[in-house]
C-alpha cells in the first residue's frame, strides 16, 4: 500500500491510498457489500458511481458461500466482477451484534451460525486465512468489541484481548507473506476503549506501537453512545494515531457524522445507512433527508435532489419514486440505492475539494446552512 497526504485544512485530511486494485482518494466512504454485493446494485453500478473501494463481510462470506468457493472464482474481485479494492472486516462486529450466539475467550470467539446453528471458532489467524481466500486489499484483524455503556473491567478486558490478538495477527501475517501468501494484502488494527479517554489512549498506544500495521481503525463507536461522545472520542483518539497511515472510523454513519469526523482527522468510513435507508424510503439530499413515502410527493415533478447529478435524479421524479415505493416495486430499491450511494460518494468528493483548497471551514458552514442549521 502507498499512502500520501495531499493536503490538510485544519485537522481535515485529503490523502491518496494506492492498493493492488485501485487508487483511492480520501476522505472516502466505502459502500457496504456484506454478501459481496452492495444491496440492489451490481459491479457495473458501483463503477458508474465511481466507487474505488467497497466493504465485504468476512463473517457472512465465511458462512455462505464459503471462502474456499470464493477463492476458486478468483477471490472477491473475480467472484463479484468488481475490479477495484475490497476491504473486509474481521467478524468482530458480528460477534458483538449477534452476541446471543457468540462467546469470546482469550484466544478467539466461539459463535453459532445465524443460518443453521452450527458452531464455529474465529481466531486471529483463522480470520486472516479466510481473508487470504477472499483476496481483499485491506484486511481487518479480529477484535473484541463491547456494547456501550459497559463496566471498566469489561472494557479493559476488551483492550487486552484486542492487543493480544493484534500481536498474533501481525506475526502470522508476516509469516504468511514470507510464504508468498497475502503479499498484496494490507492489514489494519482496530482501536477499542469505549468512550473512556484513558482506555482509548491505552489501546491506541499499544496498537500503534505495532509498526507493521498498514493502517489503524477506530472501532467500538456508534454502538449506542450519544453522537457528541462519539465525536469527542474520535477527536481524542486521533492524536495517538500515526499521521503517515490511514485512519478509518468503522460503521459511521450519517452525512453529519462524516463531516464531523473528517474535521477530526478521519480518512475512511463505512456504513449500511445509505442503502438501508434507501430501502426504507429515506433519501439523503443536499438539504437534508426526504421521506419519499409521504403523500405530499405523489404529484411532485422535481427530482429527489435538484443539485444531484445521479442517474435517478437525472431521469425520474419524486412522484415516480413515491409510486414505486408504495407499489413495492423492486426497481425502487435500485434507483433509491443509486441515489443515496451517489450522494455519499459525492459528499466525499466535495469534502476533498474543500480540503485541497484549504476551505474546510467554509464548506462545513455551507453544508449545515443548506440543512437549516446555523
TrEMBL record:
Its EC number is 2.4.2.29. Residues 251-257, 275-279 are annotated as: RNA binding. Residues 11-370 form the tRNA-guanine(15) transglycosylase-like domain. It is an enzyme of class 2 (transferase). It catalyses: 7-aminomethyl-7-carbaguanine + guanosine(34) in tRNA = 7-aminomethyl-7-carbaguanosine(34) in tRNA + guanine. GO terms for biological process: tRNA queuosine(34) biosynthetic process. GO terms for molecular function: metal ion binding; tRNA-guanosine(34) queuine transglycosylase activity. InterPro entries: TGT, TGT-like_sf, tRNA_ribo_trans-like. Zn(2+) binds at residues 308, 310, 313, 339. Keywords: Glycosyltransferase, Metal-binding, Queuosine biosynthesis, Transferase, tRNA processing, Zinc. Pathway: tRNA modification; tRNA-queuosine biosynthesis. Substrate binds at residues 89-93, 143, 192, 220. GO terms for cellular component: cytosol. Binds 1 zinc ion per subunit. Its cofactor is Zn(2+). The active site is at residues 89, 270. The keyword tRNA processing applies. SUPFAM superfamilies: tRNA-guanine transglycosylase (SSF51713). Catalyzes the base-exchange of a guanine (G) residue with the queuine precursor 7-aminomethyl-7-deazaguanine (PreQ1) at position 34 (anticodon wobble position) in tRNAs with GU(N) anticodons (tRNA-Asp, -Asn, -His and -Tyr). Catalysis occurs through a double-displacement mechanism. The nucleophile active site attacks the C1' of nucleotide 34 to detach the guanine base from the RNA, forming a covalent enzyme-RNA intermediate. The proton acceptor active site deprotonates the incoming PreQ1, allowing a nucleophilic attack on the C1' of the ribose to form the product. Homodimer. Within each dimer, one monomer is responsible for RNA recognition and catalysis, while the other monomer binds to the replacement base PreQ1. Belongs to the queuine tRNA-ribosyltransferase family. This is Queuine tRNA-ribosyltransferase. It comes from Arcobacter arenosus. The lineage of its organism: Bacteria, Pseudomonadati, Campylobacterota, Epsilonproteobacteria, Campylobacterales.
Amino acid at each position: 500500500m502507498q499512502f500520501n497526504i495531499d493536503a490538510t485544512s485544519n485537522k481535515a485530511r485529503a490523502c491518496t491510498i494506492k492498493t493492488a486494485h485501485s487508487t483511492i482518494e480520501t476522505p472516502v466512504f466505502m459502500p457496504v457489500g456484506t454478501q459481496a454485493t452492495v444491496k440492489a446494485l451490481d459491479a457495473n453500478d458501483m463503477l458508474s458511481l465511481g466507487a474505488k473501494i467497497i466493504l465485504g463481510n468476512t463473517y457472512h462470506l465465511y458462512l455462505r458461500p464459503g471462502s474456499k468457493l470464493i477463492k476458486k472464482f478468483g477471490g472477491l474481485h473475480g467472484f463479484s466482477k468488481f475490479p477495484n479494492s475490497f476491504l473486509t472486516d474481521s467478524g468482530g462486529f458480528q460477534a458483538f451484534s449477534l452476541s446471543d450466539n457468540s462467546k469470546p475467550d482469550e484466544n478467539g470467539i466461539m459463535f453459532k451460525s445465524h443460518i443453521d446453528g452450527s458452531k464455529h471458532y474465529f481466531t486471529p489467524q483463522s480470520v486472516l486465512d479466510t481473508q487470504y481466500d477472499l483476496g481483499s486489499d485491506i484486511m481487518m484483524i479480529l477484535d473484541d468489541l463491547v456494547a456501550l455503556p459497559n463496566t471498566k473491567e469489561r472494557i479493559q478486558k476488551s483492550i487486552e484481548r484486542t492487543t493480544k490478538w493484534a500481536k498474533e495477527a501481525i506475526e502470522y501475517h508476516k509469516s504468511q507473506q514470507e510464504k508468498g501468501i497475502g503479499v498484496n494484502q494490507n492489514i489494519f488494527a482496530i482501536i477499542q476503549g469505549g468512550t473512556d479517554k484513558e482506555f482509548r489512549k491505552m489501546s491506541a498506544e499499544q496498537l500503534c506501537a505495532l509498526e507493521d500495521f498498514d493502517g489503524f481503525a477506530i472501532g467500538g463507536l456508534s454502538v449506542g453512545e450519544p453522537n457528541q461522545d462519539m465525536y469527542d472520542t474520535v477527536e481524542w483518539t486521533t492524536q495517538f494515531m500515526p499521521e503517515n497511515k490511514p485512519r478509518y472510523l468503522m460503521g459511521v454513519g450519517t452525512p453529519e457524522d462524516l463531516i464531523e469526523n473528517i474535521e477530526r482527522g478521519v480518512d475512511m468510513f463505512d456504513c449500511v445507512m445509505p442503502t438501508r435507508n434507501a430501502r426504507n424510503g429515506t433519501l439523503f439530499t443536499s438539504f437534508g433527508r426526504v421521506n419519499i413515502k409521504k403523500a405530499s410527493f405523489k404529484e411532485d415533478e422535481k427530482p429527489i435532489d435538484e443539485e444531484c447529478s445521479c442517474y435517478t435524479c437525472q431521469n425520474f421524479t419524486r412522484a415516480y419514486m413515491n409510486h414505486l415505493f408504495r407499489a413495492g416495486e423492486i426497481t425502487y430499491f435500485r434507483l433509491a440505492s443509486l441515489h443515496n450511494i451517489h450522494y455519499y460518494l459525492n459528499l466525499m468528493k466535495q469534502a476533498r475539494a474543500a480540503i485541497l483548497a484549504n476551505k474546510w471551514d467554509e464548506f462545513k458552514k455551507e453544508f449545515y446552512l443548506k440543512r437549516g442549521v446555523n
